[in-house]
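Bench notes, afternoon.
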Amino acid sequence: MNCFQHQTTERKDTIRNLLNGIWRVLPPEPKETASLTWDEADAYFKHYLKLLQDRRVVDGISISFSNTDNAAEEVIRFVQFVRERWDQPVEKIEDDIRNDPPPFLLKSTHDATRMALKLALRLWLFVDPNLSDSATVQPQPGQTSAGLQLHQAVSSSLWPRSSPSLKTLSADFSAKSLIRKGGFEFQSTGDLSEHLTFDPDCRWIIRVFGCARALEVHRLSEKIIVYPEAFVVEVQKTLQLLFPTAGRKSGRRTREYVKRYRADLEAPIVEMNRLSLGTYPFFGERLEHIQKRYNDSTQRLLRQWYYDRRKRVEWATFVVAVIVFILTVVFGIISSVTGILQVYAAYKWHN
């Protein structure tokens, strides 16, 4: 059952406001085919709640929402305040925050202001930007003053280009095979730095970015450019690799995964050599790591024994063992029934 089915109108309105106000994503509407479903919207709402519950950000000393009547409205207003200044140096944005602080900012110190700015950027852009070098960056062509720009902060927060040792992924590399054959599961995350990484508490859970529509809004935007374009496209390519939507069966299966993991996973179809790791400069090593674990996976779940036929000898041995077991049970039942009938016939004959 959909957990949003019995939610209050007020909570649904909050989710709609967050989607519209922060990410410019069309909220769930019954008659709008381009809108999110409530299952997909859940990923954005969980991302919002997780940040507000993070004591490293909302510490109760510098930032607190305890005295705020409507935290969502204040957060939306603050993100919009920051977004309007996306092309200004970070130091200038922080000065503007100190001059016009949001209600939840309890202190106007440098550290508190930076913490508030990070809250807005982590929520809006799904990355923890590196703002530590904001005073040492020299002016770029066209800039009127020195200082770190937001797009520079986002770019410097991304990991270095990867250089995987493998050349290609296996032909069956997809969420379907990883689940059925490898015994893995997936978990939605709103943190791009966790995309395609394993949960540190469970080696069988792969974390995937679950807010795909928001990235597409950024990619199509001509006014606000904060991500490197190649990075956004590559995230979409990895989602399309794992959760393909081309074809009726693939599309239906991906929609099932959307409901199962309560995430926005449907990325636009991008032309690519999907199996070549050379086409994934940012995520190549992470995909390689998943591929190696997939290759090394052994049967530990019943579904793996049924679907995983990569090791033909082991699979054939399993099938033979199952057949022998079934035949043993069947013949055992037949033998028992025959014995019972013989005893019953003898009893009737003597009486």
